[in-house]
Amino acid sequence: MRNENTVVKRIERAARSGKTTRCLGIGDDAALWTPTKGYETILTCDWFLEGTHFLRDKHPAGVVGWKCLARAVSDIAAMGGEPACFLLSLAVPSSLTGNWLDELLRGLRRASRTFHCELAGGDTTQWDRVLISITVIGEARKGRAVLRSGARPGDILFVSGTLGEAEFGLRQLRKQRGFARARIVAERKHLYPEPRLALGKWLATKRLATAMMDLSDGLSTDLPRLCMASSVGARIYASSLPVCPLAKAQESTTLALHGGDDYELLFAVSPSKLRRLPASFRGVRLTRIGEVTQEKKLVLVENGSAHPLPSGGWDPFREG
Amino acid sequence: MRNENTVVKRIERAARSGKTTRCLGIGDDAALWTPTKGYETILTCDWFLEGTHFLRDKHPAGVVGWKCLARAVSDIAAMGGEPACFLLSLAVPSSLTGNWLDELLRGLRRASRTFHCELAGGDTTQWDRVLISITVIGEARKGRAVLRSGARPGDILFVSGTLGEAEFGLRQLRKQRGFARARIVAERKHLYPEPRLALGKWLATKRLATAMMDLSDGLSTDLPRLCMASSVGARIYASSLPVCPLAKAQESTTLALHGGDDYELLFAVSPSKLRRLPASFRGVRLTRIGEVTQEKKLVLVENGSAHPLPSGGWDPFREG
Questions:
Q1: How far is CA A294 from CA A208, A233, A235, A298, B182, in A?
Q2: Is residue A319 situated within a structural domain?
Q3: Among A95, B22, B127, B142, which residue carries the largest CB count within 10 Å?
Q4: What pLDDT, in 10s, does the model give residues A264-308?
């Protein structure tokens, strides 16, 4: 007989990593976790829903497992913190509690090891579609976490890596038949995003970023959030955007402005600290894309003329 | 235009409590929280799904708001901890982002104040049914949290309050037309459960319980979990169960054994500490219902004869 206890056992088995653990988790009402002295706790949660965030007939279960954790861990990177452990809220149809669940757990375990973020507990139930909510617990040295609200007029805006690449990858994947397989970097970025943990932590530790966030919904949707939190505006230069090299010129700018799912970092740097910022960090390019302005407007400079930056990224509640 | 930012604003407004806060939350990528020195962090998450855990045409939105937090906070009570803050993962149809959402947030805010557990952040998206996943962060003095795994043969088993009352209340509510209203205590217990926070913390602080858990899925489903975690068995006396006084005799025993949603505490006490346990704690009765046995079996003594206790509580994956 298949029941909740055996589903939980399957998850527990997949989570077991052999090494000693900081978390006392699965099997009790709640998980216990010992915070590090002198550190603040960072808490974040993220939905990953069938039909909205992934397609069951397109995304292999292993991709679902990797990506649901990677997305949530990216919020920890965006604060300049380090992940510690996570809770998995999982609802699946009964028919998927066998091989499909095992493959999902393998992807999740691989992500968990890569990001040094262990499974501490969760909740499982049955549902007609796959629902995942991941909570990640991370840490940052007290007072060092980077918020969205610290950007000041005159600060320079940077992004890591390439923008619009994941969206380009998604478009390529849509042309494939059957399950998605990563053949090029852009497709891999859509399927297996890698949160910029090392960069985020380095920027926080060196106090280089005045404000930071991760780009999950697209620059044109996320940048206004940083500006709103900081009570500032921004000016972005289209020609400076680190676009996806495979896309056609005009498409690549549109993708860089509005494409979601990149999980790159957007951060502001005070002009006085500019010279301490390298051109790249551990192989990830850091690109200056514009500056923070006093006037609370978002301006895109393109082909020599400035116009308002329209918000065109991902918003689940947009009505038209 | 209604979009994700305005939905988040609505939640943020409802969460604002006026007093200074320990959590720096909504509006950033993640929430920051300062753990108390000398305490361990307790982490738990709980699903609350339309159609599974509540019915939209039966349960008012305010009940949904209260109950989703109460259930999750009950896991903190079960560890003997105190809640600190929570994350709300919420998916709703666009049509419910107005009054319905406001009423849900009012119920949630009332629960949040009652349990001293503040909203620290979360994630919102759109979905065709209401999906809620709540993560609660709590604390317990280092080494004092009570696990499921500490029960020893010879320990005495206790429960708080009345068992099967919420299930009885649910059955009464099913007879009402339209939205459920609490007319009697049992109905109130189904709609507005109150986690046993004070009792759990007291038992943990005084080191009175060797093992503890909350009864969410029914005694016959939850007790085996405690026994499995402790590698023990248990013997329960039907005549000792604190049954719902309004139910008929035979029904009341069935409800007490298998009814879910009570959120009472089940705990084991060493015989040497029995005399330190009062008959009731702050108006909540503590009832001795049986004992922990070395033999890993679950036995129910009823009308003078002992037979195996069948598991009859809530299990979303049970196949028959």
A1: 20, 6, 10, 11, 54
A2: no
A3: B127
A4: 999 999 999 999 999 999 999 999 999 999 999 999 999 999 999
Domain boundary among B95, B120, B141: B141
Inter-chain residue contact B29 with A214, CB threshold 8 Å:
yes
What are residue A186's phi and psi, to 5 degrees?
Answer: -65, -40
| Average pLDDT of chain A, as a whole number | 91
pLDDT-derived band at A141 (thresholds 50, 70, 90) equals very high
Whichever domain contains B65, its CATH number is 3.30.1330.10
- Is the domain of B127 the same as that of B102? yes
DSSP B81-133: -EEEEEEEEEEE-GGGTTHHHHHHHHHHHHHHHHTT-EEEEEEEEE-SS-EEE
Q: Which of residues 199-218 of A touch B (CB under 8 A)?
A: 213-214
pLDDT at A25: 56
Cβ-based contacts under 8 A for chains A and B: 215
For residue A140, the chain B residue with the least C-alpha distance is B32
Contact A230/B at CB under 8 A: no
Higher pLDDT, A250 or B284: B284
Percentages of chain B per state (helix, strand, coil), in multiples of 5? 35, 30, 35
Residues B113, B236: one domain?
Answer: no
Helices assigned H by DSSP within B196-319:
197-205, 219-230, 249-258
H helices of chain A, where? Answer: 4-15, 61-78, 99-114, 165-175, 185-191, 197-205, 219-230, 249-258
Domain tally, chain A: 2
Residue B307 C-alpha, separation from nearest chain A C-alpha, in angstroms: 22
- The answer to whether residues A84 and A173 belong to one domain is no
For residue B306, CA distances in Å to B158, B167, B236, B292 come to 19, 25, 9, 15
Q: So what's the pLDDT on residue B10?
A: 78
Give yes or no: residues A173 and A126 share one domain: no
Distance in angstroms (rounded) separating the CA atoms of residues A63 and A181: 10
Q: What distance separates the 2 farthest-apart alpha carbons in chain A?
A: 68
- What the block records as the tokens of B30 is 């993640």
Pairing relationship of beta strands B264-269 and B156-160 according to DSSP bridges: antiparallel
Residue for token pair 């099913």: B174
Q: Quick one: B120 and B269 in the same domain? A: no
Among residues A141, A157, A178, which one ends one of the domains? A141
Q: Which candidate, B271, B303, B272, places its Cα nearest to that of B288?
A: B271
Alpha carbons B67 and B75: distance in angstroms, whole number? 13
For residue A227, the enclosing domain spans 148-308
Residue B22 has pLDDT above 70, yes or no: no
B3 to chain A nearest CA, in Å? 4
Q: Quick one: pLDDT at residue A18?
A: 43
The residues near B282 (Cβ < 8 Å, ≥ 6 apart) are B198, B199
Cβ neighbours of B270 (radius 10 Å): 17
Q: Tell me chain A's radius of gyration from C-alpha atoms.
A: 20
- A166 contacts A75 by C-beta, under 8 angstroms: no
Q: Retrieve residue A185's tokens.
A: 């970097």
Radius of gyration of chain B (CA): 20
**Residue B318 pLDDT more than 80?**
no
Question: A153 with A278, same domain?
Answer: yes
Q: Cα–Cα distance between B14 and B35 in angstroms, integer?
A: 24
ipTM of the complex: 0.90
Q: Do B30 and A147 touch (CB under 8 A)?
A: no
